[in-house]
Amino acid sequence: MNFSETDLNEYVLEAVETMGFESLTPIQEASIPPLIEGHDLIGVAQTGTGKTAAFLLPVLNELSYGDYPQDKINCLIMAPTRELAKQIDEQLQGFSYFVPVSSSAVYGGNDGPEFARQRQGLKMGADIIVATPGRLISHLSMGYVDLSEVSFFILDEADRMLDMGFYDDIMQIASYLPKDRQTIMFSATMPDKIQHLAKNILNNPVKVEIAVSRPAENICQQAVYLYETQKLNAVKEIFAAYTEPVRSLIFASSKLKVKELARALRQKGYKVAEMHSDLDQAQRDEVMHNFRNGNVKMLVATDIVARGIDIDDIALVMNYDVPREAEDYVHRIGRTARAGASGRAITLVNEKDLSRFRRIEKFLRKRVEALPLECSANLEGERSNAKAEKTADKQNNGRKRRKRGRKPQKEGGMPAMKSFGSDNFGSDEPNTGHTAQPLPTAETPKKPARKPRYRRRRKTQNVTEKANN
Questions:
Q1: CA–CA gap between residue 29 and residue 85 (Å, rounded)
Q2: Mean pLDDT across the stretch 19-47?
Q3: What's the gap between Cα 229 and its chain centre?
Q4: Which of 210, 438, 231, 209 is CA-nearest to residue 319?
Q5: What contacts 218, CB < 8 A, 6 or more positions away?
Q6: Using CA atoms, how far apart are residues 104 and 245, in angstroms rounded to an integer?
Q7: 111 lies in which domain range?
């Protein structure tokens, strides 16, 4: 379906054409018509499916008619991170080029002048505000933000916002909004907490769900199986195979690992930058600028840049740690092979992450090619051997316990039985010729003391030898 076949007006269509878009993606084709009709909507789609345009274009279409208050905030878009907020604002600038609307991005990690600019945009009433929850709450607490005229409330990557603990902030922000509004929510997944949030803030929404797509076929996916201590050697060996530096993005599981890995790579002589949540906005902007223009070829980062960063010529994406979910794996390696180019994705799999990586392969419906390196290890074989040894140990221990607990047998082959009603109570001798009598009720018999299983031999010495000594 082409954009010209939609009900978007000529101003929006001209901007879309100028930006080089012709056909709608599945999420756009399913979302734009009900949004133009004014329905609330909850969309389940991953990053990279075109969902940003799916909610921006209908909103711009409505605002372009000019039937909304001047100098008031008419649309509020919430994003979990400053990077995503900036990206949405950048796309908004392009799509609104022929539409007379104003916008402002509101996010943290910046200095006093930037905060003052955000305050000015909120007080003046920009048509569209793109904000992170924490920073918007800071402005709301100062009393100069008026959200009473908001007609469109949009939550992008709602699942990630809830994972970051923003549920209460979202509900607090929603309390400032009018009841009569159109609410749009996009999420990569649909867990119970998202359904609970949707129930609280959406009104009879249309649900659009696009299955999580698998990585592009032009990405060469490989895996290196190794021990954790060999990962740095693997990175060095992989990059040594390139005749010249290539633009590379390395993902690590935590900011501490990012710092450690970046420091280790610098010590090895690599020119590397790092991206994590400890950097302020100015530092992040500088890192991304240097990475985009080629001053730095290698970027080590947390998942903070896994979603929504558009850099077209990344040749290699490396997962220093296996992602927790298959969706995260898709988001990470989706940073390469963009705009029809080919790319390469390498995942380092240690002994603890092997099961998790097998689940990702199950989602991909294929086995990822193994990349043999000098530091590689046969984790599957060693894991099978360890499992077999553990099973054998359990069986041997079980036999020993059964053997220790076996009672002596008599000539007839039957186990010796103790008669609890006989005169020789507690004896190991069989009771013959006696009938078991009921136990006295006045006093409960005590359990007899257990005899030692083996008698320890006394050490004796020959008296004559002792005397001679």
A1: 24
A2: 90
A3: 23
A4: 231
A5: 337, 340, 341, 342, 343
A6: 38
A7: 3-209
Angle between helices 112-124 and 133-140 in degrees, nearest 10: 70
In a domain, 407, yes or no: no
As a whole number of angstroms, the distance between CA 312 and CA 195 comes to 35
Domain co-membership, 162 together with 29: yes
Number of domains in the chain: 2
Q: How far apart are the first and last CA of the chain?
A: 109
Do residues 347 and 224 lie in contact, with contact meaning Cβ atoms separated by under 8 Å? yes
Whether residue 443 has pLDDT greater than 80:
no
Collect all residues with Cβ–Cβ distance below 8 Å to 387 and sequence separation of at least 6. Answer: none
Sequence-distant (≥ 6) Cβ neighbours of residue 66 within 8 angstroms: 100
**% residues pLDDT > 70 (the chain):** 78
Are 335 and 307 in contact by the 8 Å Cβ rule? The answer is no
CATH code at position 361: 3.40.50.300
Q: Give the whole-angstrom CA distance, residue 307 versus residue 186.
A: 14
Say if pTM beats, i.e. exceeds, 0.70.
Answer: no
Question: What digits encode the pLDDT tens for the residues 212-238?
Answer: 677 888 899 999 999 999 999 999 999
| Alpha carbons 190 and 14: distance in angstroms, whole number | 35
Evaluate the CA torsion angle 27, 29, 35, 40 in order and state its sign. Answer: negative
Q: Report residue 421 as tokens.
A: 């009603």
Burial of 70 (0-12, 13-18, 19+ CB in 10 A): exposed
Q: Which long-range contacts link 380-389 to residues 24+ away (Cβ below 8 Å)?
A: 380/225, 380/354, 382/351, 383/351, 383/354
CA 375 to CA 399: how far, in whole Å?
Answer: 40
* Distant-in-sequence, close-in-space partners of 304: CB < 8 Å, separation ≥ 6: 81, 83, 275, 276, 277
- Alpha-carbon gap, residue 197 to 216, rounded angstroms: 32
Torsion of CA 35, 40, 44, 47, to 10 degrees: 60
| 383 vs 351: CA distance, rounded Å | 8
Residues 197 and 247 in one domain: no
**pLDDT confidence bin for 276, thresholds 50/70/90:** confident
For 140, list phi and psi in degrees, rounded to 5. Answer: -60, -35
pLDDT digits (tens, 9 = 90+) for 299-344: 999 876 666 566 778 999 999 999 988 878 988 898 888 777 889 9
Contact 145, 118 (CB under 8 A): no
Looking at the structure, do residues 355 and 243 belong to the same domain, yes or no? yes
